[in-house]
Amino acid sequence: MLVEPRTRLALGALSAACFVSVTSENLPVALLPQLASGLDAPESAIGLLMTGYALVVAVSVVPLVTVTGRWDRRTTALVTIALIVVSNVVLAVAPNYGVAVVARVVAAVGHGVFWSVVASMAARLLGPGRGGRATAVVFAGNSLAFLFGLSVSSWLGTTLGWRLAVLAVAAAAAVTALVIRVTVAPMPAHAPARGPRIVADRALLPVNVTTLLVVTGHFAAFTYITALITRYVHVTGPATSAVLFAHGTAGLLGLVLIGRHIDHHPRPTALVTTAGLAVCMLALLVSPSPLVAGTAIVVWAGPAAGIGVVLQAAVLRVAKDRPDLASAVYIVAFQVGIALGAALGGWSLDAGLLPVAVLIATAGGLTSALVVWRAKAFASPA
């Protein structure tokens, strides 16, 4: 099926928005030591900027998606991206840790709303039966964020200072908003579904359980990936940016492969994503070789890139008539997983037990794979 040029541009604009959102969200990961030094806070406190961000999203997303349920979807996306611009400008001039927390809250308020609409917007652009492919296309921005966004942010933070790195993200968000305004046509909202019915939907429960397990595991390790690189690969400084770049490249390749198969083979694809996380973490944990450890960290990006695509596609498959609010409930599970994982990883780092974070990631991958294996939500379409 051919895709019209305007549709391609619109999908590219949404993918760019995903790029900006993920880069902004994960700046504490890329700039961990610089933020700690600049804000006079321990690295574990910088990790809590991820935890707090996720908790704000988890608490606010369902009521905010309900409130904005009748908004045009393009307008909703533009408002949430504008919040990213404001947030990063405030963070760039933050004199202390408290102001940094406030800045993160500003972006977090819009974060869940953005992610509750972007996949369904892409699916509407490509048409019925292509929700997984549409999600993979726009979620390419996620992988590009890890490929370029985080590695370039890390490099900027090391060479020019973290404040300029954060301002660069704000500028990119502003440009992205302009591109969406020009390329994406107005998109009226679906009739909103009732929140309680969505929350209690048994068909969505396995998807949300899988989300909580695999995301908790992944972010227990990923939030402190720079510390993992230092400990297991024995590199620091600019070399860390190179490892992050390789990690992002692997993620992009993994996303391409997952996007090709997710609509027709959802369960095998989901198993590759969940079990693949566990395999990479085990390799990192047991290998004494920095080369093998570095390879495990790079390959880890492949299954990690599929987490959002696999889970969001399952939501769209199960909740075809109410995608936005169903996505909001799923995002709650996702953000709780980020918050819990970042907190567990931070505890492990503070206690000098960083391998425990890797063990948590292994357990998250294995247990989520078991749910995927059994749940009908991941069954192949008839």
From TrEMBL:
Q: Name one Pfam family in it.
A: MFS_1
- Which ranges does the record mark as transmembrane? 48-65, 77-95, 101-122, 134-156, 162-184, 205-227, 239-258, 270-291, 297-316, 328-347, 353-373
What is the annotated localization of this protein? Cell membrane
Q: Which UniProt keywords apply?
A: Cell membrane, Membrane, Transmembrane, Transmembrane helix
Q: Which domain of life is it from?
A: Bacteria
Q: Name one GO molecular function term.
A: transmembrane transporter activity
Q: What is this protein called?
A: MFS transporter
Question: Which membrane topology describes this protein?
Answer: Multi-pass membrane protein
Task: State whether keyword Signal applies.
Answer: no
Please give the CDD domains that the UniProt record associates with this protein: MFS_NepI_like
Limits of the Major facilitator superfamily (MFS) profile domain: 10-376
